[in-house]
Write a structure and sequence with these properties.
The protein is α+β, with helices and mostly antiparallel strands and 188 residues long. The chain is built from five helices and seven strands; from the N terminus they run βααβββαβαβαβ. It has a seven-stranded mixed β-sheet, with helices on both faces. The protein is globular.
């Protein structure tokens, strides 16, 4: 007990209960706030995120307070199919998901620091793996030194052509293109 609590014992801090749910267009404003906190050097427009949610909603999840009214996100994932090694440039619109897309792409996975360490990234990846198994491989551009994090899920550095190298450089000097082989792929 101390003077700051008027001699009363402090109650333990309440842990925020959060859960993954489907993302909607209503989440975009909050998503952008999270993105700007986690990746301030990699800004993308609201339209980029809104387009991904519209084009491939199954790959777009929101991490929100699990009280039924959680409008403020604590994290998100944006992901979708692409043609192999044709990752989109930073802050660019896709227009459509190619009908011959043969690789899954994780555009972004971001979780605010105050809710990390609870296995939320693992939960998210398990949800994505249910989708990725339809494709031979999944790719991600690792930023801010997160290659070790992605390595926990089987992602490894791959040799890439000059066009993709130029796109990866737009994500920062330490950005790295990674791929993983998916299980149970039905693609050829």
């Amino acid at each position: 007990m101390d003077a700051a609590t008027n001699g009363k014992a402090k109650s333990p801090a309440k842990t925020k209960v959060v859960a993954w749910r489907s993302m909607s267009a209503d989440d975009i404003e909050s998503l952008v706030r999270v993105a700007n906190k986690i990746q301030p050097d990699l800004p993308e427009s609201d339209q980029v995120f809104a387009e991904r949610v519209t084009l491939f909603p199954a790959g777009c999840l929101a991490l929100a307070e699990d009280d039924g009214g959680g409008d403020e996100l604590c994290g998100y994932v944006i992901s979708h199919p692409i043609r192999r090694r044709q990752a989109p440039a930073l802050d660019s619109l896709l227009g459509e998901i190619a009908s011959d897309a043969d690789q899954y792409y994780i555009h972004d996975l971001a979780i605010l620091p105050e809710v990390r360490g609870r296995g939320l990234a693992q939960q998210c990846m398990e949800k994505l793996f249910a989708i990725t198994k339809r494709y031979t491989t999944t790719s991600v551009i690792s930023v801010y030194g997160t290659a070790t994090f992605w390595g926990r899920f089987g992602f490894v550095v791959e040799d890439i052509d000059e066009d993709l190298k130029m796109k990866v450089l737009d994500y920062g000097d330490n950005a790295t293109y990674l791929e993983r082989k998916n299980e149970e792929s039905t693609s050829t």
